[in-house]
Amino acid sequence: MAIIAYLTPFGLIAAYFLNKNKGDIFAGFHVKNMFGITLLHYIGVLFGSMGLGVLHEVLFFISILSWILSFVRVLLKQMAGVPYLDQLFQQWFKFLD
What we know:
The chain is mainly α. The protein has one domain (about 1-95). Helix content is about 75%, strand content about 0%.
C-alpha cells in the first residue's frame, strides 16, 4: 500500500482507503508523506498560475526531489521521507490516520 501511495494522486487516494481499515503504520506514514508532497506540488502550481514563476519553479523542484527520495525510501522499506518535512507532514496530517 505504501508503494501505491507514490504512484499518482489516484494511487494516494487508493492507498488511503486500502489502509483506512487496516491501520498499517508503515503505509500510513507514507500516505501522509505523499499527501504533503502532493499538496506542496499543487501549491506550486497555484503560485505559477498567479504569475509567481520563481516560487513555482522552486516548489516544483522541491516536490519532485521529495517524491524521488521518498519513493526510494519506500522501496528500501524505510519509514522515512523527506528530511524535516516528513515529521511536519506526520504532525499536520494526523487526520489521515
